[in-house]
Amino acid sequence: MNEPLRTAAYGLAATVALTGAAWAQDLPEKLVIGTEGAYPPFNYTDSEGNAQGFEIDLGNAMCAHLEIECEWVTQDWDGIIPGLQAQKYDAIIGSLYITDERREVIAFSDKYYQVPARFLVPGESDLEISAEGLDGAVVGTQRATSFERYMNDNMPGTELRLYGTMDEAYLDLGSGRVDAVMGDAVAIQNGFLSKPDGEGFEMRGPEFTGPEWFGYGAGVAVRQDDTAIADAFSEAITALRENGTYQEISDKWFGLNVYGG
Amino acid sequence: MPDLQGYGSLLIDGLMMTLGVAIASMIGALILGLAAAAGKLFATRPLRILIDAYTTIVRGVPELVLLLLIYYGLPTLVQDTLGGMGHDVTLTINPFAAGIGTLTLIYAAFACEVYRAAYLAVPPGQREAALALGLSSLITFRKVELPQMMRYALPGLGNVWMVLVKATALISIIQLPELMRNADIAARSTQQPFTFFFMACLLYLGITLVSMWGQGRLETWASRGTTAGAL
């Protein structure tokens, strides 16, 4: 075979391998997946200490589709990306949103869900949800989240209170220390509004999804040299959405499809 | 008794982890701290400077930063460095060992200062008298100085222990499910923060009460042979 032909043949073979099941031979037999285990109903810990929730069911379905064995470990939120980089686990399925900032240090699969951000206010409050309406108001949200960045960039006139968890923000909303709480619409619905404490509160204003702040939805995060694993998960997400498994799991936990637009 | 919804055993597991890490770290801190104090008092100048640097740095840097650096930073550095040279290695640090190691390192620095102050509080005449009686330097330390300095050291060491117990709440960042982390998991999974944080609060208070009782016993024992009220 002459030289140009051989190069062409290699190139063709490489292209086939990339477009075909490139991940099939690269995937390890077993993956350890990290999650926070304290963000119901997406992921939480049952009384036996096992991880449960929408993301656990979806993750297990993806692993079954990829025919790999998956083991779950829970990790405190503050150390979730360092843990991945230090190889304590191989992937994160824990409502970690894909953002350009995070992409500089880790790689992501395509999104597997995207819930809009919304404001939670007491029903009797006359707060208008806009940059002008929230000027001077006190808004609470979770530290080191997309919500914090959105508020800093778009509503500089608002006094922002940052909490370690959304629950602490809800507690301060209940006691009147903050006027509104910004967060994930599903988390607010399931974690607060559907509970006895949530009575008298409501979500108000538009749904916020600007990719500059809220990224591109939550994706499976892997180390940067493990893009083959991320690609495999992207393929699994597409397959599960096509065969109805995704809809089934989403219905079970939310009664609606959380894949987002 | 509030309804723990089956999460009670998770809290007990957390309590055991907290106690395990705290006790192991305290034992390490007592030994390493005494060695460091001996170094500060008697070692040659270069070694003394080294120990001074250790206690200054460790007491000045937040525990959380040291934990993160040792558990996540060290493996990442080693793996990336060796990975860059073409060796594919995974450095696994056992989180339990990392937690105990880090807390030992930190609290030994505090214990060292307590020991040093206690040693200096023993009048030098005690040592001189023992040496004049012909006791060796080692026997003088073990039989004459150590018993007297323990009396001064115990209150300070008890304080180090109580701060250490609460510092164990930080180790959840390195995947160790201690009491605070498990209380947090239970609180957020059941949406009942007050129930579980209150239970955690009671358990920490329980540890403190038992510790205070134990410390009282130890102080009485260490002060036997001195007149009540005398220093």
Structure, described:
Helix content of chain A is 39%, strand content 24%. Chain A has helices at 3-19, 22-26, 54-66, 80-85, 100-103, 146-154, 166-174, 185-193, 211-214, 227-242, 245-254; strands at residues 30-35, 38-39, 43-45, 51-52, 69-74, 91-92, 107-113, 117-122, 138-142, 159-163, 180-184, 201-208, 218-222. A 5-stranded mixed beta sheet of chain A has the order 5-1-6-13-7. A 5-stranded mixed beta sheet of chain A has the order 10-9-11-8-12, with helices on both faces. A 3-stranded antiparallel beta sheet of chain A has the order 2-3-4, with helices on one face. In chain A, strand 9 (138-142), helix 6 and strand 10 (159-163) form a beta-alpha-beta unit. In chain A, helix 3 crosses helix 10 and helix 3 runs antiparallel to helix 11. The N and C termini of chain A lie far apart (50 Å). Residues 11-23 of chain A have low confidence and may be disordered. Chain B is flat, with a radius of gyration of 22 Å. With 231 residues, chain B is an all-alpha fold. Helix content of chain B is 79%, strand content 0%. Chain B has helices at 8-42, 45-60, 63-84, 95-121, 124-132, 137-167, 179-190, 193-222. The chains are: A alpha/beta (261), B mainly alpha (231).
> Which percent bin holds the helix content of chain B?
over 70%
Mean of the pLDDT scores of chain A?
Answer: 87
Strand order of the largest sheet of chain A: 5-1-6-13-7
Q: How many β-strand stretches of chain B?
A: 0
Structural class call of chain A reads alpha/beta
> Which chains share the greatest interface?
A-B, 30 and 29 residues
Radius of gyration of chain B equals 22 Å
Low-confidence stretches of chain B: none
What portion of the residues of chain A fall into strands of 2 or more residues?
A: 15-25%
Number of strands of chain A: 13
CA radius of gyration of chain A: 21 Å
Give the biggest beta sheet of chain A: 5 strands, mixed
How far apart lie the N and C ends of chain A? 50 Å
How far apart, in Å, are the first and last alpha carbons of chain B? 45 Å
List low-pLDDT spans of chain A.
11-23
